[in-house]
Specification:
By secondary structure, this protein is mainly alpha-helical.
């Protein structure tokens, strides 16, 4: 994952730690794109509603029903159907994004710590093998991320329902139904066809950011405890997100 290797007093290379932090920036990029698309749908729906109001105001009352019929499909299309499809697709993509990045982090940890173990040897699917690998081999204190990992597991069950059964849930899908019923971002849904909400996508993005920040912070803490006090410097920003990297003046002697 990085060209520089770690040493006994430097359990993780700073290049590897910086790569983990870069994943947070990738989350920020995806958040910006998602919110931009959501804004386009909202603007289009508002424009259609304003157009409908103007048409109603200019028409005779007996023509109102026909006018509503002319607009109702377009409004429903941009106010519900297209956003619903877009949110589900984004959610599925983000789950795959997380799985790929966590696997890359685990593979990087295996290389950095010179382990024979790899995440692919763990049983399970989705994020579970990576979470098991991190718990067993990373040497990092990730206890503060326990609730985030539980949320990820629930999202994985929901992703499976979206991909394999078109989002239709029955009581037989016990784990997914339990997650949906207890998830505030999916309030009012339980069984039948489940619709991914904008609130759920944003919450998932928040969770991804928290996890990558948590991993990055835990690695920094572990390195400092191991005797490596080399700082990581603020080298720029992506929107409101700080970007850290090596000393722009070059590494200092230790």
């Amino acid at each position: 994952m990085s060209e520089a290797s770690s040493s006994p007093d430097e359990p993780y290379s700073w290049e590897f730690v910086s790569q983990v932090y870069d994943y947070r920036l990738q989350v920020a990029e995806r958040r910006e794109l998602f919110l931009e698309v959501e804004g386009l749908y909202e603007a289009k729906a508002a424009a259609l509603s304003a157009e409908l109001d103007a048409a109603m105001a200019a028409a005779d009352p007996e023509d109102h029903d026909d006018i509503v019929d002319d607009f109702v499909w377009d409004i429903r299309h941009v106010d519900h159907q297209l956003p619903s499809i877009q949110r589900a697709a984004t959610f599925i993509m983000l789950v795959h994004f997380l799985e790929a990045r966590l696997t890359a982090i685990c593979d990087g940890i295996g290389e950095e710590l010179k382990l024979d173990a790899r995440v692919k040897r763990f049983r399970g699917s989705g994020v579970e093998p990576a979470l098991l690998f991190l718990k067993k081999y990373s040497k990092l204190d990730l206890s503060g991320l326990a609730s985030d990992f539980d949320f990820l597991r629930g999202c994985k069950h929901l992703r499976n329902a979206l991909v394999h059964s078109g989002g239709h849930l029955s009581e037989a899908n016990t784990r997914t139904v339990k997650f949906v019923r207890n998830e505030p971002a999916l309030e009012g849904q339980a069984t039948g066809e489940i619709h991914v909400t904008s609130a759920l996508v944003v919450k998932f993005l928040d969770c991804l950011e928290t996890i990558f920040i948590g991993l990055h912070t835990a690695m920094e803490s572990f390195m400092r405890q191991a005797g490596n006090t080399a700082p990581v410097y603020l080298i720029g920003t992506f929107g409101s997100v700080p970007i850290f990297g090596p000393d722009p003046q070059g590494p200092s002697e230790r």
